[in-house]
Amino acid sequence: MEITVTSIEEYLQAIKKIKISENVPLLWFRGQNRSEYRLLTPEARLSFKTTESLLIIPGFLKHLNDFKDFCKKQCRKQLKVLGNPKDDLEWSFLAQHCGAPTLLLDWTEDPMIALFFAINKLDPSDTGVNVFVCSPENLNHSVSDNTPVQNYHGPVPVTEETRDYLLRYIHFENNPSLPLCIKPSIQNYRLTRQSGNFIIQGKDFTPFDLQDCGKFFHKIIIPRERFSYFKELLDLLQLNEQTIYGPQTPADEYARELRKLVEEKFIDTKRYFVNSQKNLPLDKVSTQQYSKNK
């Protein structure tokens, strides 16, 4: 479903219409500042296929370990405030909210927070910006027949029952190709203020909205000429970077540097494959080898 809105009343009515169509008590929202942007995790945005259809993906576990090592050395005093992550799953939650490249995509339970992210950093296309809407319950039940997943009405929480299953997604070990809605187990100011949740990447690096589960994603479009109206509304509600993000930490700065470095390496690597007269044999270049070289 795709709906264009020009006022806050129409925005709320669009959400109501989607909620009725999904027939669920809970919806998630994600604001994106160009209406043509697809639903891709940071790592998926930095992947590409060679002419031989070899999928080259970033070294996400190395990036996570780099972020984790930095925080343990440079942010020891702030770790408790940041949520004191216990394993790679919880470190991924923190890394994503700090801006590091991960296999996660942010979502919120608050439609006004999503509106803020759509409008805040205007990079508008001719058609405007959008807010994606989905039902975590319907999405999860459609993409997984795993018993722990089916036991929950809504996103999968991190529990003793589900932790190992979710860690396999992060470690990319025997995980399904399909995305999964999960509720984070750490809490800090930013996650709490943003009502933060995540969809975790499966092995399929196609945009979520173009996969078989794409029918569960709806789009609310805000035309370019209505940006000022919605921005004024957000300012009135005191939804701004200071209240949404809270205090910045060294982890935020490092995450931005790490992401910039990864993006630069992505450009260089892709240029190499594009400019090569012939690609290396498939057994000479693999995602695992590429990850180690990162």
TrEMBL record:
SMART domains: FRG (SM00901). Residues 23-133 form the FRG domain. InterPro entries: FRG-dom. It holds the Pfam family FRG. This is FRG domain-containing protein. It comes from Treponema bryantii.
